[in-house]
């Protein structure tokens, strides 16, 4: 990349837009997309654009209609039939990729495995036969609760092969979150491991499953992958070892023809209520969305070694560790460990070891690396890298520039990709061979998409003004519904504006059409790129006998982006103190998972509320961020605020 920061003072203003970086001519000349006409062509006929992207996949039967739109429910590629696992594996076997690495696995302890596309075919078809043997049929749900090991993508693809629907639960979720997600999905089978590694310590994966399945459950069988050798109990008749089942399973299993609209997976994500939503993604539209964006945003080439550091338990892992890369016949790295174990250069060690060419990670990780010091990446050979990506939260220009300099060595373009669990695919990002990038801006909507910033009445705001981020036309990777709750789908995404999808984010579009994402406007918080609802954490707190009421907010945090602060009122039976704070933090971690553990818990006699009884989280946020308080005139109990402020600064 060429171009130097024009201004030293880049961190103060939001618009660091004097800083512009252009891709080098070498990168441009070799890029998959070199002609900016792609935007115009896609705009001229966006359905045709998606048709041409869809034609790159392998279909058993071509679709009759590209899009059927019925009162905010979209059906993509209607009448078409395909199989996602076939597209991710089988077709590559005949296209010269049989012996190409599909998955490079790096385990936390340093163990390594490479699975070629042929290996993947063998493992996936065997496990598909295992599932079939257990009575899993098309449309049945299978929950996957596992660390980042190859058996996770194998299980995903085996489900896809026979038309079963997978529902992955991130391994960091605790028992209750796991139980809720298994129950809501009504899963027949759970695939898990005996344990997992986390910075050298063991994770009680199977024990969590045992607890989650206590009482009534739809689950008939639990398949256990032997990962750590941890001591576990195997329940007779229910629990079966993966390796024993696989030993006798035959290789080869026909790929079930699925209608494009058939469900591929459910992924639970936090909304604005205490109950996570089951976001449903279809087979055809989702694969068209993820495979096409993967190809153009990451500029993938046959010999690239691509590494997305996200956990497969989140949407980024679904779309850009597994489906997008494998649909493109790419080599994808699956890394089980943490960035700072055994040392703070583990990521750079992985890049050096496998000569990774494309790296896709999160701003929270980049900020942690900055803090740990430049010496860690400097001590490793990162010369293989040619493109970098960022996802999950706004990247501050300072972190962007650090990434650019210390990891990309001022050579690699950075794609800052904005999207959501619900969008399935990247929506806003630069195309690295075409667009100049501005540190801190996710750049512009990808071809074929119509995205805008509007005022509360739905009218576009002038350039440079902030407003609400909306999507004005359907796109193939979009969620098809909320599992078992179409009303919630309509309410959540389509009720705010007519015929526009409301993202829940606010943003600014600048004079050049570049989007600057400014975070959520609803009760969703983003802690280290992990999405959480304030209400979920509040419910966990009030579940503790000491707590009468709780209000949770996200406060700015140097590394995590946002951290959780909680304000609680207590029952008369309890008194506030360090012990109780500890207990409450642990309680939340046990209920939801360590990722939801509040950083601080404050006691207050009362919570600030409107006269209609709604907690005014905005005021709490201002207090936590040390800001001057905005309008307090709607407050029913203004005196609580001064007490709270004092308490907070103590
Ligand atoms: O607020 C936006 C933020 O993450 C939210 C979506 O979270 P989730 O569904 O967990 O998916 C995260 C990974 C795709 C969005 O509503 N977000 C995601 N990417 C960016 C971002 N904010 C700013 N810049 C991004 N690149």
Describe this protein's structure.
The chain has three domains: 2-83 and 267-516, ANL, N-terminal domain (Rossmann fold), CATH 3.40.50.12780; 116-256, 3-Layer(aba) Sandwich (Rossmann fold); 525-649, ANL, C-terminal domain (GMP Synthetase, Chain A, domain 3), CATH 3.30.300.30. Helix content is 31%, strand content 23%. It contains 20 helices and 30 strands. The protein has an eight-stranded mixed beta sheet with strand order 12-11-8-6-7-14-15-23, sandwiched between helices. It has a seven-stranded mixed beta sheet with strand order 5-4-17-16-18-19-20, sandwiched between helices. A four-stranded antiparallel beta sheet has the order 21-22-24-25. A hairpin with a 5-residue loop joins strand 4 and strand 5 (112-116). Bound molecules: adenosine-5'-monophosphate-propyl ester (PRX).
Quick recap:
By secondary structure, the protein is α/β, with parallel strands linked by helices. The strands form eight sheets. Strands 12-11-8-6-7-14-15-23 form an eight-stranded mixed sheet, with helices on both faces. Strands 5-4-17-16-18-19-20 form a seven-stranded mixed sheet, sandwiched between helices.
Which radius of gyration do the C-alpha atoms yield? 24 Å
Q: Based on the structure given, which CATH architecture of the largest domain is correct?
A: 3-Layer(aba) Sandwich
Bound molecules: adenosine-5'-monophosphate-propyl ester
Q: Give the overall form.
A: globular
Mean pLDDT: 93
How far the N terminus sits from the C terminus, by CA atoms, comes to: 48 Å
Please give the count of helices.
Answer: 20
What is the number of domains?
A: 3
Judged by helices, strands and strand pairing, the structural class is alpha/beta
Assembly status:
single chain
The first-level CATH class of the largest domain is given as Alpha Beta
So, the CATH homologous superfamily of the largest domain? ANL, N-terminal domain
């Amino acid at each position: 990349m060429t171009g130097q920061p024009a201004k030293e003072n880049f961190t103060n203003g939001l618009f660091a837009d004097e800083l512009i970086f252009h891709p080098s001519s070498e990168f441009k000349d070799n890029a998959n997309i070199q002609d900016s006409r792609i935007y115009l062509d896609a705009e001229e006929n966006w359905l045709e654009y998606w048709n041409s992207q869809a034609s790159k996949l392998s279909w058993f039967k071509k679709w009759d209609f590209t899009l059927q739109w019925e009162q905010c429910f979209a059906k993509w590629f209607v009448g078409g039939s395909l199989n996602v696992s076939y597209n991710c594996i089988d077709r590559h076997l005949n296209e010269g990729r049989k012996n190409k690495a599909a998955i490079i696995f790096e385990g936390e302890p340093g163990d390594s495995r490479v699975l070629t596309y042929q290996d993947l075919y063998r493992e996936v078809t065997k496990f598909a036969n295992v599932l079939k043997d257990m009575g899993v049929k098309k449309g049945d749900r299978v929950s996957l609760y596992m660390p980042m090991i190859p058996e996770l993508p194998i299980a995903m693809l085996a489900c896809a092969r026979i038309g079963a629907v997978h529902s992955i639960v991130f391994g960091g979720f605790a028992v209750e979150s796991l139980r809720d997600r298994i129950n809501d999905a009504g899963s027949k089978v759970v695939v898990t491991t005996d344990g997992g590694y986390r910075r050298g310590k063991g994770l009680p994966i199977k024990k969590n499953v045992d607890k989650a399945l206590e009482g009534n459950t739809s689950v008939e069988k639990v398949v256990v992958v032997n990962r750590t050798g941890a001591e576990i109990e195997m329940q007779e008749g229910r629990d079966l070892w993966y390796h024993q089942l696989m030993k006798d399973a035959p290789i080869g299993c026909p790929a079930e023809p699925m209608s494009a609209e058939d469900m591929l997976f459910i992924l639970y994500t936090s909304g604005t209520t205490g109950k996570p939503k089951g976001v449903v993604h279809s087979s055809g539209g989702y694969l068209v969305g993820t495979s096409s964006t993967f190809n153009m945003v990451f500029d993938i080439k046959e010999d690239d070694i691509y590494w997305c550091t996200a956990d497969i338990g989140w949407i980024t892992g679904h779309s850009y560790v597994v489906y997008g890369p494998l649909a493109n016949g790419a080599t994808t790295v699956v890394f089980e460990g943490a960035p700072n174990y055994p040392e703070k250069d583990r990521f750079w060690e992985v890049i050096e070891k496998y000569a990774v060419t494309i790296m896709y990670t999160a701003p929270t990780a980049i900020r942690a690396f900055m803090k740990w010091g430049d010496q860690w990446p400097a001590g490793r050979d990162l010369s293989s890298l040619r493109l970098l990506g960022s996802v999950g939260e706004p990247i501050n220009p300072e972190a962007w520039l650090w990434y650019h300099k210390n990891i990309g060595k001022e050579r690699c373009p950075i794609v800052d990709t904005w999207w959501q669990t619900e969008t399935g695919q990247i929506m806003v990002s630069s195309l690295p061979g075409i667009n100049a990038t501005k540190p801190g801006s996710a750049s512009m909507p990808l071809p074929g998409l119509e995205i805008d910033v509007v005022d509360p009445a739905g009218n576009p705001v002038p350039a440079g003004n902030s407003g609400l981020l909306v999507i004005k036309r359907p796109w193939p990777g979009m969620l098809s519904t909320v599992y078992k709750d179409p009303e919630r789908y309509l309410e959540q995404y389509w009720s705010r504006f007519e015929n526009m999808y409301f993202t829940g984010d606010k943003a600014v579009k600048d004079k050049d059409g570049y989007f600057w994402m400014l975070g959520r406007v609803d009760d969703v918080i983003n802690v280290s790129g992990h999405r959480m609802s304030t209400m979920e954490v509040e419910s966990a707190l009030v579940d503790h006998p000491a707590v009468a009421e709780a209000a949770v907010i996200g406060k700015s945090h140097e590394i995590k982006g946002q951290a959780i602060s909680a304000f609680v009122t207590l029952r008369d039976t309890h008194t506030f103190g360090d012990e109780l704070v500890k207990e409450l933090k642990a309680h939340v971690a046990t209920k939801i998972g360590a990722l939801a553990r509040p950083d601080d818990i404050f006691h207050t006699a009362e919570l600030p509320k409107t006269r209609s009884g709604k907690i005014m989280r905005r005021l709490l946020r201002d207090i936590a961020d040390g800001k001057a308080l905005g309008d307090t005139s709607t407050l029913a109990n203004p005196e609580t605020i001064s007490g709270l402020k004092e308490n907070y600064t103590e």
